[in-house]
Specification:
By secondary structure, the protein is α/β, with parallel strands linked by helices. It is built from 10 helices and 6 strands, in the order E-H-H-H-H-H-E-H-E-H-H-E-H-E-H-E.
């Protein structure tokens, strides 16, 4: 029996990827790295910031932290007028009417997560931050923590993700997962284990 809906944040609750792409483009330009949509999807989307900096620049520690801090501050400057993904508010209303709970499971830094949720006017009953649980997606730990905090089995939840990394995390926990076509193609999401793909949440109402 379905008891909870679990959502990724960036690219799922709102289409924030274009803003992240711009912020990363500005942050990496001094290093001679150009960031277009294909590069963003392949090397950045769905990954933890420290992993991105280690991979792209071979940096960690304070050097990486300074770049990350500047990039995320720039993202928050850009993310002032966010809109919920089409159908999201209706889906949450329907879930509440059916007695379901919901939560957000994200690799986003804490400051970003709170900024985006506030901008969207959302107050999830559960917020799981990868940076606080010790492992990020694609590792299943963030979703395992979400289920543990809710006291639920994997079969009692549905997950919504927009990246192959996020899909692998949720599917690796045993949660049926749906992919949002905001940043990645259908094949990449299905290959990662998504049950099916959705253009937006207007197609998710029938799942309840």
């Amino acid at each position: 029996m379905l008891k909870a809906l679990l959502f990724d944040l960036d690219g799922t609750l709102a289409d924030t990827d274009p803003l992240h792409l711009l912020a990363w483009r500005e942050a990496l330009a001094p290093w001679g790295i150009g960031v277009d949509e294909a590069f963003y999807r392949k090397r950045i989307s769905g990954r933890l910031n420290p992993d991105i900096l280690q991979d792209l620049l071979g940096l960690d520690g304070e050097a990486a932290a300074q770049i990350i801090e500047a990039k995320e501050a720039r993202f928050r400057e850009l993310a002032q007028d966010l809109k919920p993904m089409p159908g999201l508010l209706e889906l949450l209303e329907e879930a509440q009417a059916k007695g379901l709970t919901w939560g957000v499971v994200t690799n986003a830094p804490k400051a970003n997560a709170h900024h985006v949720l506030k901008a969207l006017g959302l107050k999830p009953p559960l917020l799981v931050l990868a940076e606080e649980v010790g492992r990020g997606k694609p590792h299943p730990l963030p979703y395992q923590v979400a289920l543990k905090r809710l006291g639920l089995l994997p079969t009692e939840a549905l997950a919504f993700e927009d990246s192959p990394s996020g899909v692998r995390s949720a599917v690796g926990t045993g949660i049926t997962t749906y992919g949002l076509l905001t940043g990645h193609g259908k094949e990449a999401l299905l290959e990662a284990g998504a049950m099916r793909v959705l253009r937006d949440f207007r197609e998710a109402l029938a799942l309840l």
